[in-house]
Amino acid sequence: MPPYEWKEVMRQCYEVGVRSFTLISLTGFIVGLIFTKQSRPSLLQFGASSWLPSLVSIAIMRALAPLVTALIAAGKVGSSIGAELGSMRVTEQIDAMEVSGTKPFKFLVVTRVLATTLSIPILATYTGFIAMLGGYLNVATNEGTSWTTFVTQFFDPLTFVDFVSSLAKAVVFGFTIGIVGCYQGYNASKGTEGVGKAANGAVVTAMFLIFIEETIIVQIAGWFR
Amino acid sequence: MEKPKAHIDRNNAVVKIRGLKKSFDDYQVLKGVDLDLYQGENLVVLGRSGTGKSVLIKVISGLLTADAGSVEVLGCDMDRITDKELQQLRTRLGFSFQNSALYDSMTVRKNLEFPLVRNRKNLTRGEIDAAVEEVLDGVGLLQAINQMPSELSGGQRKRIGIARTLILNPEVMLYDEPTAGLDPITCIEINELINEVQQRYHTSSIIITHDLTCAKETGDRIAMLLDGQFQREGTFDQVFDTNDKRVKPFYDYNFIE
Questions:
Q1: Most CB contacts within 10 A, which of A139, A205, B17, B191?
Q2: Dihedral of the alpha carbons of B116, B121, B127, B129, in degrees to the nearest 10
Q3: What chain B residue is nearest to A84 in terms of C-alpha separation?
């Protein structure tokens, strides 16, 4: 890829981040808060409410952060990529790129797939952090746990495999969102109806694949634990 | 306005098509088309909707592949051309789309720069700016340089679309319905622009249209696509000097007598 396409990759990374930032912040915080709130009564029954930060960390870092981020990005970013490329296809903008001696695949597809593959792990890490804050708010309010204690207990049960599998999931999810969105948009047909189908197909297919990938990666990570 | 005299080299065909066939599912659109486009010539292709006029120029530009027959463009056999050769060939072709196909997320400047920076990699920033401004000035829209396509009228979009193809100095121009959906005054301006492009850039052009005024104003030769083949060919007057029921309504509809 010639160096100048990196500008487009960076622009797409910015688009992916900006498009999802508010929703991911809000969702991450609520997921952390609600998960902690719902788990607390069960742990209280066993007198194990002090385990709450550990439980929250395992749930968030191993599963929820990459999954929630990917599902939101599939809805926001995947549909947007599908609709944008679909619209470019039906209005002959992709053909126009092709006949001007450039490779639309490189400019449109490679840049977007790279952008989602790079951005989703960053967003997933951010979601994990925000969800941790949500969890801390609940624990601090009910247990009076300090920030330092919470953070120590939060990271204590996590292993290297947890971080790697979480990151790997986010990379795979990001790639899936990008490639599915681009595939649906790039192959759109039949006018505006096709654009709608491309956007819809991008979301539904990406979500379906994300759940399958989640299951597979969890199994693989389990072998390494 | 009278069409300026073109310098046509009838010994040099820049596009040679023989026995071209193209089908979509069971529907055969082109049934053995033969065509020569000569150096410096404006060839107008007329025909009813769905007769394969746009398919023809998409095959010439490599957007579609022929089912049978041979297509030679600027000496390249489209059947045997490699990806790299096709990409290089396309820099010598200009394709003006029916709906202009401007990149709607880019300004006019970025639209024009797009093919240039990707095909002329050693140009400086100053040279790129100069080329963009020159070609925009050529189509009379220098003032629109920082506008988005959505802010332009249909005629302006068409002009910018043509400017975008001209920036690579093409040898062959392919116009798909250049005057479709435009008001009569803008149509006249586009016709004049097509002739100006022929004169200034010494292009050979295929102009797909339904608009007989456009055909008359811009065409050095007219070819009429009927039933998947070119069945009438010649000057405007030669083509319409007939009582053929497939041809006459074209004339009668466009020039009510």
A1: A139
A2: 40
A3: B105
- Helix ranges restricted to H, B120-244: 125-138, 154-166, 184-201, 212-218, 236-240
Residue B245 is predicted with a pLDDT of 77
Q: Identity (one letter) of the amino acid at A63?
A: A
Q: Is A100 touching B (CB cutoff 8 A)?
A: yes
CB contact under 8 A, B119 and A103: no
Per residue in B179-237, pLDDT tens? 988 888 889 999 999 999 999 889 999 999 988 889 999 999 999 988 888 888 888 88
* Centroid of chain to Cα A20: 9
CB contact under 8 A, A95 and B88: no
- A84 interaction partners in chain B (CB closer than 8 Å): 105
Q: What is the pTM of this model?
A: 0.87
User: How far does Cα A74 stand from its chain's mean position?
Assistant: 7
Out of A98, A100, A103, whose CB is closest to B114?
A100
Chain B residues touching A90 at Cβ < 8 A: none
Predicted ipTM? 0.89
Residues of A in contact with B121 (CB under 8 A): 2
Tokens for A201?
């197909």
Distance between B170 CA and the closest CA of chain A, angstroms? 10
Instruction: Please count the other Cβ atoms lying within 10 Å of the Cβ belonging to residue A82.
Output: 29
pLDDT at A3 over 60: no
Residue B6 DSSP code: P
d(CA A101, nearest CA chain B) in Å: 5
Angle at A208 between CA A19 and CA A117, to 5 degrees: 45
| Ranges assigned E (strand) in chain A | none
CATH classification number, B9-100+171-254, choose in 3.40.50.150, 3.40.50.300, 3.90.380.10, 3.40.50.800: 3.40.50.300
Residues of B in contact with A96 (CB under 8 A): 95, 97, 101-103, 161, 164
**Can you give the residue ranges of every domain in chain B?**
9-100+171-254
Question: What does DSSP say about strands B172-176 and B204-209: parallel, antiparallel, or unpaired?
Answer: parallel
With vertex at residue A14, the alpha carbon angle to CA A9 and CA A18, rounded to the nearest 5 degrees, is 150
How many contacts, defined by CB atoms under 8 Å, are there between A and B? 63
Angle between helices A160-186 and A191-224 (to 10 degrees): 160
Average pLDDT, stretch B124-145? 92
Beta carbons of B116 and B133 less than 8 angstroms apart: no
* Residue reference for tokens 């695949």: A105
Residue B2 is given by DSSP the state P
